[in-house]
Amino acid sequence: MNKRILIVDDSFYMRTMLKNMLTDAGYEVVGEAANGAQALEMATSTEPDLITLDVILPDNTGLDVLKSLRQIQPSAKVVMCSAVGQEVIVNEAIENGALAYIVKPFSEEKVLEIVGAALQNDASEQTA
Amino acid sequence: MKTRDQEYRELFMAEALEYYDSMSRHLSELERNPNAGPALNELFRLMHNLKANARAMGFTDLGEVAHHLETLFGLIRDKEREFSGPLIKVVFAGVDALGNMIRAVGASQPLPDATALLDNLDRVVRGEAPILDEAEAGETEEESNRKMELSDLVYIQVKKLDNLLNLVGELVIDRDRIMTLAQELDNPALLATAQHLFRISDDLQYSVMDARLVGVGVLLNKFPRVVRDVASAEDKEVELTLSGQDVQIDRNILQIITDALLHLVRNAVSHGLETTDNRLKAGKSAVGKLTLSAMTERDDVLLQVRDDGRGIDTEAVRRKAVERGLTTANAAAGLDEEAVWAFLFEPGFSMAQKVTDISGRGVGLDVVKLALDSLGGQLRVDSEMGVGTTFTLVLPTSIAVKGALLVEVDERPYAIPLMHTDTVLALQPGQISVVGGVMVTHLHEQSVPLVPLRQLLYDEGEEPLPSANKSDIEGTQHVLVVNYNNRRLGLVVDRFMRQQNIVIKPLSKPLDTIDLFGGVTLLGSGQVCLVLDVPTLTRLFLARRP
């Protein structure tokens, strides 16, 4: 079965690019959320295998969303997405259970490599 | 892929302009209230996004300016810098520069130099005083007040476009009516105005149709995934080639044929293409080839699904058609390949699992056919045993307006969509023979049955149509050869009127249950003209042939 991915990013451009990369590689993109509230709602309704989460979101910081996500969907693996300059938040995100992070601007190879590795990561290793 | 790059660029531009507008809004809020938290957060977020997107697009300088401003707004938010004094000027200069850069991207021009600005941004980030050229700073501010940019791209609901197209359809009908009136009244001023109205509404009609066009690629690009899924489920190796993604077609037409195309592609992978073992045994490459291509032919769009698989077993289909009572053994023996393949599109024919196994084809092809019929499109099939099968979907580029041929029977006009017409013939009695009560003529070495359209229109009931007699055929016969489902049929009419673009309106109750008529159109004279449905005419003839 294809792995199901939820994309959380407030930029339509970024979501489209990520979605194309992931879909082309055979993943199923089950939803695209543009803010934290949508992300939590969609994570509950779609139960994705993996969530790509933008660090900076309009209504919440990505970090708050990550903490809530970890509570409502503990099985979902989370990969943070961020442009350079937000290393502090990213580190905190890793401490809060995010598996990896993708630095924007990302290449297709890098995205697929990180997403693939995160999906293979065993659930037990996930809890930091 | 060119189309995808273009799509990214358009998305980038649309979003960048939106960000720029929001930035300006939040900046004026910040001017009123230098500690406005939400505005600062938003500015920080917008800069962050613009930076990331610009870098992904390769606009380094644009990304750099946004990056500096992001850092600066982060510092202001964290109270390490204050939004006051010379810093404000640098921020405004920075946002103005972003606007200019975004506009330059939109106009495909080189980005303006930002060295001095970046230098100043560095200074204020470090807490130093910027080097400001007062005159220059003042001018920039003035300039920013003049330039207001809105996105060049508008997203619009398809529903609104549908409405627009319907209104244009109404307009075109009235236009034709006015044109005819002007000719009847023979008033030169009215005629000139009517002609002008004609041209304008023509342009309007094509503009609205054009606004509804999308690249076929938006659908085709979804198929690599489908093919991979089906291929891996069937344990086959398939190489998919796409072409013609840029061919333009009405968005609703694409929507309607989505399932049909999906069906054909799945069918091709699971039934058309052989397993790797069987391919190797047949001396073929291990990897099956599947091609999805789009091309424009006259006013139509052709979508082809081509595989290099086993092909259709014509004899198996022929046997099955006789078994199912669709034809007699004698008649079946005389049918050429194309006529036999046409049985694959018969409702229910495909449901016979056995045929599917033998021919490797057929599951739900009637459904594909129905989707195409609803559009007034055509489905063609071409196949060679052991070499492969090609399905061709012939689609109109646009809905609502169709080219049609007007014919007359008993002084009443009827319209027949050009999509289904092959050719018109003027036949002398000597060119027509009668075989088993059916008139037949020869066209390109194929025999084509002829039937008076009058009989199909007036003779109700289920019983066979009256047999034709050679002696009854007198004078020139005007024949319109229509084509449906690989079958040709000659309709004998009283005369041909003209070819014209028509706007088809659905029939209202209670007439909407009469399949024979695909709808109604109004001619310029105000006369009501029924639009004939060729698929139904063909079926009616086959069911009731003498």
UniProtKB/TrEMBL annotation, chain A:
UniProt xrefs under InterPro entries: Bact_response_regulator, CheY-like_superfamily, Sig_transdc_resp-reg_receiver
Modified residue annotations for 4-aspartylphosphate: 54
Q: Which Gene Ontology MF annotations are present? A: kinase activity
The answer to whether UniProt assigns keyword Transcription to this entry is no
Q: Which key words are in the record?
A: Kinase, Phosphoprotein, Transferase, Two-component regulatory system
One GO biological process term is: phosphorelay signal transduction system
Highest taxon listed in the record's lineage: Bacteria
Occurrences of domain Response regulatory (ranges): 4-119
Query: What's the name of the protein?
Result: Histidine kinase
From TrEMBL, chain B:
Domain CheW-like positions: 401-543
Locate the Histidine kinase domain: which residues?
A: 194-399
InterPro entries attached to this UniProt entry: Bact_Chemotaxis_CheA (IPR051315), CheA-like_dim (IPR004105), CheA-like_homodim_sf (IPR037006), CheW-like_dom_sf (IPR036061), CheW-lke_dom (IPR002545), HATPase_C_sf (IPR036890), HATPase_dom (IPR003594), His_kinase_dom (IPR005467)
- Stretches of the chain forming a coiled coil according to its record: none
Provide a Gene Ontology MF annotation, just one. phosphorelay sensor kinase activity
Q: Which GO terms describe its cellular component?
A: cytoplasm
Q: Which UniProt keywords apply?
A: ATP-binding, Chemotaxis, Kinase, Nucleotide-binding, Phosphoprotein, Transferase, Two-component regulatory system
Q: Name one GO biological process term.
A: chemotaxis
The reaction(s) annotated as catalysed by this protein in its Swiss-Prot or TrEMBL entry are:
ATP + protein L-histidine = ADP + protein N-phospho-L-histidine
User: CDD domains annotated for this entry?
Assistant: HPT
Q: Which Pfam families match?
A: CheW, H-kinase_dim, HATPase_c, Hpt
- The EC number of this protein is 2.7.13.3
Every copy of the HPt domain together lies at 1-105
Top-level EC class as recorded in UniProt: transferase
**Keyword set includes Cell inner membrane:** no
Report whether Glycosyltransferase shows up as a keyword of the record. no
**Which positions carry Phosphohistidine?**
48
Q: Which domain of life is it from?
A: Bacteria
> What does UniProt give as the signal peptide span?
none
Function text: Involved in the transmission of sensory signals from the chemoreceptors to the flagellar motors. CheA is autophosphorylated; it can transfer its phosphate group to either CheB or CheY.
Name recorded for this polypeptide = Chemotaxis protein CheA
